[in-house]
Design brief:
The protein is mostly beta strands and about 270 residues long. Helices cover about 10% and strands about 45% of the residues. The protein contains three helices and 15 strands. The protein is globular. The termini are far apart.
Length: about 270
């Protein structure tokens, strides 16, 4: 799947889709990182204890209304990043990036800090953005072998070649308004990360006011629990309007507040 292969409504022009995302209010910087993303996003319902097991000490699950009962959302982004760079530069890097995220988390015993989104693991297929993400934002980015086609996504361990995750997908319906996908709130949360010098915080704008969101039917297989608590098995997910799980393609431009993560909550 490439940017050219992403379906879009006839009323939305190429310039509308690819113009730079706006920075979060009060976070604008000339050194913000910007880029474009084409991805398949899966939202899985997991037991609260499963989601909690993916969090480091000091973080707990916050109250949320996105999923009912004893379920908590887990977000998997199977993505392709394009022209990622500090905003003053004209050209940037292209790479494949997988993001595992636990939304709606908060500090334990530290007052009303949150909700945040915590990312237990990110896999990339290129060294430079992996190192930059770790050093500047405290993200747990690691190298892996990643293959992406129009209908599939594969992640394998870089050293052993063992398959970690595989997915096959196909278009299920026409594009919808991002705000109607039911998942817009997941992209608005600030990200909290754990670094050697303590907690770091970062904010991103995923440009949902002009993103293209298209429901897909997704067969996802998690072959190994590459983070603590991650459920292993096969998951069939379809559409964006489900009561629990959902799956969709998104094509958008984004901006990540820079030049590096904050040391205090936004």
């Amino acid at each position: 799947m490439t940017g050219q292969e992403m379906a879009r409504p006839a009323s939305m022009s190429e310039r509308d889709v690819l113009r730079p995302a706006r920075a979060p209010a009060g976070k604008w910087s000339p050194l913000d990182f910007v880029g474009r993303m084409t991805a398949v996003v899966a939202i899985l319902p997991v037991a609260r204890e499963v989601a909690q097991a993916m969090l480091p000490a000091g973080l707990g699950l916050a109250a949320q209304e996105f999923m009912p009962g004893d379920r908590h959302p887990l977000v998997l982004i199977l993505g392709q990043q394009s022209n990622v760079r500090p905003s003053p530069l004209p050209l940037g890097a292209d790479y494949l990036e997988f993001i595992l995220a636990v939304p709606f988390v908060e500090h334990r015993g530290r007052g009303p800090h949150g909700p945040f989104c915590y990312c237990p693991r990110l896999y990339l297929d290129r060294r430079l953005p992996t190192v930059a993400g770790r050093l500047l934002y405290g993200y747990d980015k690691r190298r892996a072998t990643i293959r992406m086609t129009e209908r599939s996504y594969r992640i394998a361990d870089l050293a052993q070649g063992e398959l970690l995750l595989s997915a096959d997908f196909r278009t299920a319906a026409a594009a919808v308004e991002p705000s109607r996908s039911g998942a817009a709130m997941l992209f608005d949360l600030p990200v909290i990360s754990r670094a050697a010098r303590g907690w770091w915080y970062s904010c991103a704008d995923f440009g949902l006011d002009r993103a293209i969101v298209q429901p897909v039917e997704l067969n996802l297989v998690i072959h190994r629990p590459f983070v603590s608590g991650l459920p292993v098995g096969e998951f069939a997910i379809s559409g964006v309007e489900g009561d629990t799980s959902s799956a969709f393609r998104i094509r958008t431009s984004w901006r990540l507040a820079g030049p590096w993560a904050r040391r205090s909550p936004p």
